[in-house]
Specification:
The protein is α/β, with parallel strands linked by helices. It has one domain: Ribonuclease Z/Hydroxyacylglutathione hydrolase-like (Metallo-beta-lactamase, Chain A), CATH 3.60.15. It contains 8 helices and 14 strands. Strands 6-5-4-3-2-1-14 form a 7-stranded mixed β-sheet, covered by helices on one side. Strands 7-8-9-10-11-12-13 form a 7-stranded mixed β-sheet. The protein is globular, with a radius of gyration of 17 Å. It starts with a strand and ends with a strand. Bound molecules: zinc ion (2 copies). The site of one zinc ion (ZN) has 5 residues, from loops.
């Protein structure tokens, strides 16, 4: 299993996942041109893709889904938004595991201010990737679903203190830190601690705010959690906003 982020943050999100029989994107929230350019860095062409699966309808996750000529899987509760716009639209139920080629994909509901937002685990029969960005709070379901992953992509959106002093309007601050907004570094750390397991090999911190966080603070917070678990050897990295991230092979 090979995993890398193509973009991460409020200006666009996309994760590339490659297994023996599948090449997919999880979200496609940047331009088609940028997706092509970033995939080219790892020798992948857009025509090599087999599918896109979509976490929720926000544009930072869906910007290019109407331009990619592969099956695009969206939650059945959001099909109406896309049915006249997206070629080759497919749907999944947000509570039901489905198969795609060699992948077993399990969506799970997350608290976020979208119609039917989900995180995913993707299992190729050998390794398991868990991805949860755009979650306002950590729920029992999120913890339950993310257990036993080898690779985790977790939101670490903001530092609560930087957010409290930032120039963002009051209403936007309330949205970000609210139950349906985004995870702070500390909340992300709690989530990591809750789902930590001995098979975990890589953690990618994602969807960092450009204004209300720094990669260093996000990294330090989660590194502290790994240290307390006696697991400093786990590869921890921060997904860059506008370039391809570290290519992880497990
Ligand atoms: Zn987002
Ligand atoms: Zn969102």
């Amino acid at each position: 299993m090979k995993v890398c982020t193509l973009a991460s943050g409020s200006s666009g999100n996309s994760v590339y996942l490659e297994t023996s029989y599948s090449k997919i994107l999880i979200d496609a929230g940047i331009s088609l041109r940028q997706i092509k350019l970033r995939l080219a860095n790892i020798g992948v062409e857009i025509d090599d893709l087999d599918a896109v699966i979509v976490s929720h309808e926000h544009s930072d996750h869906t910007h290019a889904i109407n331009r990619i000529n592969v099956p695009v899987y969206v939650s059945s509760n959001t099909t109406n938004i896309w049915k006249d716009k997206v070629f080759n639209l497919m749907e999944f139920d947000s509570e039901t595991t489905f198969e795609f080629n060699d992948l077993t994909i399990t969506p799970f509901s997350v608290p976020h201010d979208a119609i039917d937002p989900v995180g995913f685990t993707v299992d190729d029969g050998n390794k398991k990737l868990g991805i949860a960005t755009d979650i306002g709070s950590v729920t029992g379901l999120v913890v339950q679903k993310l257990k036993g992953c080898n690779v985790l992509i977790l939101e670490s959106n903001h530092d609560s203190e930087i957010l409290s002093y930032s120039k963002y309007p009051w209403r936007l601050k309330q949205r970000i830190k609210g139950r349906l907004g985004h995870l702070s570094n500390k909340q992300s750390g709690w989530l990591l601690e809750s789902v930590f397991n001995d098979d975990l090999q890589h953690v990618i911190l994602a969807h960092l705010s450009k204004v209300n966080n720094t990669p260093e603070i996000a990294y330090e917070t989660s590194y502290g959690v790994l240290e307390s678990c006696g697991a400093e050897q786990i590869n921890l990295c921060v997904a860059p906003r506008n370039t391809i991230g570290e290519v992880i092979t497990v």
